[in-house]
Every structure is written in structure tokens, then in C-alpha cells.
Design a protein that fits this description.
single chain, mainly alpha, 0% strand
């Protein structure tokens, strides 16, 4: 088995740069707000494509935070940022379920109201948790912008 403990690939190195973090965070905020605004139509295709575009953006964002995620996970409640880690995990789970339930709706695989209900609830919850996440991270965001 190959150890990845000290390995830094080009994506990971790139995603840790300050300017990239600012761009990714701004893009995530804009995409989540766009998803929220376009959720009622009239053009669901745009809403769907923004949801699809979120997948690689979230992936790159997470890859830049791997060290932080591992530290919080390893220390659990002893880490002072454990609450923020739980908030991040909640946001990720909600966004993942929201994106995953959007596919059967968009591709018209099912007209079951359950898909739509789960998609709507997790979408609304994602927006709320995202703003809580931003508020909890306000000092870190300000520090990132000042440096």
C-alpha cells in the first residue's frame, strides 16, 4: 500500500494557494446562491447545470482542505474546530444528497414526489447551513482576504 501521508499532488498544492481558496470559496457561494435563486424555474436546465458544475468545485475545495479535515477527524471533540468540522460534514452530506436527487428529476427517470421533496428539503437546508458555515468561518475568511 502506498502512503499518501506526505504526498502532495499538483491539484492538492494548487488548491491550497490563497488566491485559489478565495476563488473557490467565492465560486461556491455564487453557485449555491444561483442554485437557490433558479430552483423555481423557469429554466430548470440552468439550475441543473449549475448543480453539475458544483461537483468538481466542491471536490477541489475539499482536496485543498484535506489536512484540516484529517486533523479535526483525528482529534474529534478535543479539536477546537470540531463543531465547524461537523458543520462542514453536514453541509457536504446535504449538498451530496441534493445533487444526487437532482439527477432523477432532471433526467425524468421518475416523477415520484419523494425525489422532489428530498431535493427541495436538502437544497433549502444546504443554503441555510452554508450561511451558518460562512458566519462560523467569518474570521478565517477575513484573515484569508487580508493576507
Amino acid at each position: 500500500m502506498i502512503s499518501t501521508r506526505n504526498r502532495k499532488g499538483p491539484l492538492l498544492t494548487w488548491a491550497r494557494k490563497r488566491s485559489v481558496k478565495i476563488i473557490l470559496d467565492t465560486t461556491l457561494l455564487a453557485a449555491f446562491v444561483t442554485e437557490f435563486v433558479t430552483r423555481e424555474g423557469p429554466d430548470y436546465t440552468f439550475h441543473s447545470w449549475v448543480g453539475i458544475a458544483l461537483i468538481p468545485i466542491i471536490t477541489i475545495h475539499l482536496s485543498g482542505n484535506v489536512a484540516w479535515i484529517k486533523r479535526v477527524w483525528n482529534h474529534k471533540r478535543d479539536d477546537r474546530e470540531f463543531g465547524l468540522g461537523v458543520l462542514n460534514a453536514t453541509l457536504g452530506a446535504l449538498a451530496g444528497v441534493c445533487i444526487a436527487t437532482g439527477f432523477p428529476i432532471w433526467l425524468e427517470w421518475s416523477d415520484a414526489a419523494g425525489w422532489t421533496a428530498i431535493h427541495t428539503i436538502t437544497g433549502m437546508a444546504s443554503i441555510i447551513v452554508m450561511f451558518i458555515h460562512l458566519w462560523s468561518n467569518r474570521a478565517r475568511v477575513a484573515r484569508l482576504l487580508r493576507s
